[in-house]
Amino acid sequence: MAAIAKAPARPARAGRGVRTRDGWWAGLFLAPQVAFLLVFLVVPLGYAVYLSLVQWDGFGPKTFVGLGNFTAQLTDADFLRAVWNTAKLALITVPVGLVLAVLIAAGLAGIKGSGFYRVLYFMPVVTSSVAVALIWQVILADDDNGVLNSTLRRLGLDGPDWLGDPGWVIVAIAIVTIWSSLGLNVVIFLAGLQTIPPQIVEAARIDGASSARIFRSITLPMLSPTIFFSTVVAVISSFQAFDQIYVLVNPAHNEGARTIVYQVYKLGFKDFQFGMSSAAALILLVLTLLVTLVQFAAQKRFVHYDS
Amino acid sequence: MRSRPAARQLALHASLALGGLLMLFPFAWMLLTSFKGVHQMLNDPTAWLPSPWRPQNYPDALAKMPFGLAYWNSLYIAALNVALTLLTSAMAAYAFARIRFRGSGALFVLFLATQMVPTQVTIVPLYLVLAKFGWVDSHLALIFPTVANPFAVFLLRQFIRAVPIELEEAARTDGAGRWTIFWRIVLPNIRPGLGALGIIVFLASWNSYFFPLVFLNSPELATVPLLLSQFAGGHSAVDYGLILSASAISVIPTLIAFLIGQKKIINAMAASGLGGR
């Protein structure tokens, strides 16, 4: 957890003395969190597994169908398109968003008075996703009122129907997602950059290293644990993206904006196919775990933990 | 950054300012457009300034939807959610940091592992569980299900481990019990951690949309994001002035609060690395 940069260091004496064997007290202190976890996470997760194996509309009898829901989803054109849309979104937002964030953080680390910019870049992070979606809806609209396309038209260019064209909508969603999450990654990287000892950079500079060389050979390797952690988080959150898309586009009207989470929501709360919805949700969980595992396997080649 | 410091600083400032303007543009456009009338939107969509200025959009938006009530709903839901999350996760963090018990390490790992399960994966069964409780279309569905927060436990455990053990030993010799130590010694000493976590949890609750969308039906129960989302589509397509004045009504108080506490908020989010998820 490299990004827990601000957490205080462990003092030498922790873990002794008052830390006595005291099972009864431990149970008492843990009880509320464990209870909440059981009721609102563990039980629903188990229930999801059960539901994924039955056919049920919420009212009638439940029919056991084995893995039928999974095979139905995995061969369903709508679901496969949702997987592809989800993957496309991650493939655009994660690399573009993180590269931009690293560059901006490196820029901020190189100037005095970065506090002002930090605030500017961070403002979208604290803004509700619904408001963000509404603002961008007005900017990206393809009618005469959309400021982006109207401006492009004045310049003699013809902007696409960002929110209506299934081929372009993922790009539009990616732009909005990157805009709204950029600031968070910037401050995380900035915090990471501030842990790099200035003596190392100074020594390299005295040895005649160029700024580009220092960035490549010192900054990037030393920042790599933070970059890795942010990549994992960014992939997971782009797999879970829902709020902005749902308000910005209304996926019901644009198949290009239907992600896996939208399928889960639609199957469950619009079609009342609880079994199908749970199966789609569990496929999402497995995909998330798989991609995270692959990232952890790949990090060994790219991430430097020794300082 | 030694070489040609002045030129380099200038170039960096220029590019960062350009990026900053791009970040700012949507907010500026929201504010300007929120004062435009339908007539101007139709005739001159790319004009920067409203002409004439139409402040009436704001009372219109307020009259259309019960924003005051939604603000109160969002505020008290977030406050209760924060209080419950801070108290219970600090308790659990204390147990993991300072009480020796069998299976402590394994339980902690299990705790953190549950963080991997996305909310959406359990949304349908969670709905069914809450329906059993009679909590659907009730604020209880927004206050309680997110209280279990392994990330919060992890963060506070780090802070508790940094509290000097001597403080606890001294209190213990004075005859203080576990709860007194936790309440009188540990909690006051991890205030910065509680503050940071409180901000993160508050923002997550305040801005949350998925849970209100799924669990609430009654209009008078709506939170700010849920109410605001009803301005998307459905209305006369061109009344962007109204839509954006509604957005401004929901965004501006948050932004003012952010600007006041920006240093604390940014540091808290940077430290968490998870941004309220």
Task: Spell out the key features of this protein.
heterodimer; A: 307 residues; mainly alpha; MetI-like fold; two-stranded antiparallel sheet; 12 helices; 68% helix; disordered N terminus; B: 277 residues; 15 helices; 0% strand; MetI-like (chain B); cell membrane (chain B); transmembrane (chain B); membrane (chain B)
Summarize the structure in words.
The complex is a heterodimer of chains A (307) and B (277). Chain A is an all-alpha fold. Chain A has a single domain, classed as MetI-like (MetI-like fold, Orthogonal Bundle). Helix content of chain A is 68%, strand content 1%. In chain A, strands 1-2 form a two-stranded antiparallel ribbon. In chain A, strand 1 (54-55) and strand 2 form a beta hairpin. In chain A, helix 4 (115-126) packs across helix 7 and helix 11 runs antiparallel to helix 12. Chain B is an all-alpha fold. Chain B has a single domain (58-272), classed as MetI-like fold. Chain B contains 15 helices and no strands. Chain B has helices spanning 5-33, 38-43, 57-64, 67-98, 104-113, 123-133, 140-143, 150-161, 165-173, 178-189, 191-207, 210-215, 224-229, 240-260, 262-272. In chain B, helix 9 runs antiparallel to helix 10. Chain B is globular and about 75 Å long. The mean pLDDT of chain B is 89. Classes of the chains: A mainly alpha (307), B mainly alpha (277). The interface between A and B is large, with 120 and 119 residues. Chain A: Pfam families: BPD_transp_1.
